[in-house]
Design a protein that fits this description.
66% helix; 9 helices; mainly alpha; elongated; 171 residues; 0% strand
Length: 171
């Protein structure tokens, strides 16, 4: 009986000591922007699985991950990464002006799909993409009617507001 009492006393004593110790402080929560930046870094990883997982995570973030558009464009020409990059780009469906140089460069790609995504995102930028108009106009001879239609929509979106400002002096 005495041995049982000592064990109980010992376990109560340890419990009291554990209850008095403070838990280590948890690290501060990451902002969504910080999470996106980490994923962008992973899109450049040598490991294809890491790149795939990063792109899939970006898919779940949707438009909040619009700063990832330039990095995702870099994956479009990679056979093993292009599907995940396309999925992420479709889900993001938004872009920042910082992507403009990448989008303009993508218009010169030999791959039609890359040019199509560039046109799509330039349209999203609207008048802010006016510097890309010469490159867009050079593509108007494309054989694909679907691409030409997208191209015309992008040109109208880019010129639209700028045209109204110039003609009406409004906005």
């Amino acid at each position: 009986m005495r041995a049982g009492f000592i064990v109980a006393e010992w376990s109560l004593g340890c419990g009291a000591v554990l209850a008095q110790e403070e838990a280590p402080p948890s690290p501060p929560a990451k902002t969504r922007a910080q999470e996106v930046q980490e994923l962008i870094r992973l899109l450049d990883d040598k490991n294809p699985v890491a790149r795939y997982q990063a792109a899939r995570s970006i898919v779940l973030m949707g438009p909040e991950a619009k700063t990832a558009v330039p990095a995702l464009f870099g994956l479009l020409s990679s056979e093993e990464d292009q599907d995940a990059a396309r999925s992420a780009l479709r889900e993001i469906d938004a872009v920042t002006i910082e992507a403009l140089p990448v989008l303009r460069a993508a218009l010169k790609s030999d791959e039609g799909r890359i040019r199509y995504y560039a046109v799509f995102f330039l349209k999203k930028l609207g008048p802010a993409a006016k510097d890309a108009l010469p490159e867009l106009r050079r593509l108007q001879d494309d054989n694909s009617s679907r691409f030409r239609r997208s191209l015309e929509e992008a040109i109208r979106a880019i010129e639209g507001e700028a045209f109204m400002i110039g003609v009406l002096g409004v906005l």
